[in-house]
Amino acid sequence: LLPRAQAQKLYHLLEAKGFQTRMEGVEFLLDPCKTSPQLISTNIAQIFDYFVPRISDSHKKVKQRALDLLAEITEAQKDALNPVIIGLVEGITKNLNSKDPRVGGA
């Protein structure tokens, strides 16, 4: 399982009020996805409950960064995404018609 302290930090960052802190949480998730994919895959549903809302974040910088990193996260976690794929598709779909070309492109 993901170490409790690391999981709590991730959840705190991803739910923060400040957009910079939420963006830090998105960045924070990438490292364990790459370095310890089995730890993330064991907790994928709970982690993505916190991550998926960042794909539709109210702040376009957070949203864009989450979408950009999603490609790397997906590559690292491709075998573990089945339980969260519906939520991911819904989050991504909301951004397809974004007026911001960087968000739509991501």
Give the amount of beta strand, in percent. Answer: under 5%
Tell me about the largest β-sheet. none
Structural class: mainly alpha
Oligomer: single chain
Basic shape: globular
Order of helices and strands: HHHHHHH
Distance between the termini: 31 Å
Which helices and strands appear, and what pairs or packs with what?
Elements (H helix, E strand, L loop, with lengths): L3 H11 L4 H17 L1 H6 L1 H12 L4 H18 L7 H9 L7 H5 L1
Helix pairs in contact: 1-2, 1-4, 2-5, 4-6
Write a structural description.
- The chain has 106 residues and is mostly helical.
- The protein has one domain (4-97).
- The chain has seven helices and no strands.
- α1 (4-14) packs parallel to α4 and α4 (44-55) packs parallel to α6 (85-93).
- The longest helix has 18 residues, at 60-77.
- The radius of gyration is 13 Å and the shape is globular.
- The N and C termini lie far apart (31 Å).
- 28% of the residues are buried.
- The mean pLDDT is 88.
Summarize the structure.
Helix content is 74%, strand content 0%. It has helices at 4-14, 19-35, 37-42, 44-55, 60-77, 85-93, 101-105.
Salient structural properties:
106 residues; mainly alpha
